[in-house]
Amino acid sequence: MILEFLIFIAGLAALSWSADKFVYGASALATNIGVSPMIIGLTIVAMGSSAPEIVVSATASLSNNPDTAVGNAIGSNITNIALVLGITAILKPLMVSSSTIRRELPVLLAVTLLAVYFLADGHLSVIEGVILIVLFFLTIGGLTWISLSAEKNDPLHTETADEVPRGVPASKAIFWVILGLIFLPLSAHFMVDSAVHIARYMGMSELVIGLTIIALGTSLPELAACIAGVLKGEDDLVLGNIIGSNIFNILAVLAMPGLLAPGIIDANVAQRDMYAMLIVTVLLIIFSFNIRGKRQINRWEGIALVGCYLAYCAFLFF
After folding, report:
1. Which of 96, 149, 207, 233 is the Cys-Cys partner for 295 at CB 3.0 to 4.6 Å?
2. Which among 79, 80, 117 is positioned nearest to 270, based on CA atoms?
3. What 3-state class would DSSP assign to 297?
4. What are the sequence ranges of the domains in the chain?
5. Helix H or strand E segment including 95
6. Considering the entire predicted model, what is its pTM?
7. How much is the pLDDT for 255?
8. Mind listing the pLDDT tens digit for each residue in 280-289?
């Protein structure tokens, strides 16, 4: 079992590294052909931050572990909001200045409600998977339109421009994209396989392993990126990446089990987990549109989010 843990950790490290290199190469390529930093930030970077979850979900589905795939999608959204944003807000309150962010939040709520509706019957069908993946591509188009119509003085515009790689030779960018595409599925395969073995050894369900260990593992790079971003004062970029990642987690990650392994899913998803995801999403929106004062997620709200995450994990295990 020690070997399985080591394989899981190595797979996670390789997954995070390959996703980072893929985003770097894709962003550099987009910059070289003249794509605006705002579009890169709202689409390529957000999709890149969801790349580990997408590949893990597809791998789990192809291995006939749809509960792991569904758990990964839901657990990642809960972890991103309750743990990642919670810890980030505790370190430094997050200002919500961008009008673009305020337009993305209702989209996040809408796709979360759609996921709840699809999961409520304890079954994920091919049709629902197709609907989710079609909405995924429509959302990319919508985010592109939003970025084109965003005001130049939008804080997100400046913060995104500062983070986009520039001056990277096309050959180098293509190399990192190809390398990322090779190592993403390979590392995901070893990570999922070892996680399933660990779950069975510890008597945990495949759903719980997806909700906790895999979701936490794939969200750790986002935690590091959020802490680095907020320390540089890029509050809107941090929040935008989390919101975009969560939207893509529902539309692309949750689509994988529907497309590749449709059928009945663990009953706990409909009875417990989808409501936990909805609750933390609503809390994020309430905290972001703070009607009592500044639009910010303050330290006490960060503590409340982390408290929700710890309570949820305790409920899962005990």
Report:
1. 96
2. 117
3. strand
4. 2-317
5. strand 94-95
6. 0.87
7. 94
8. 999 998 888 7
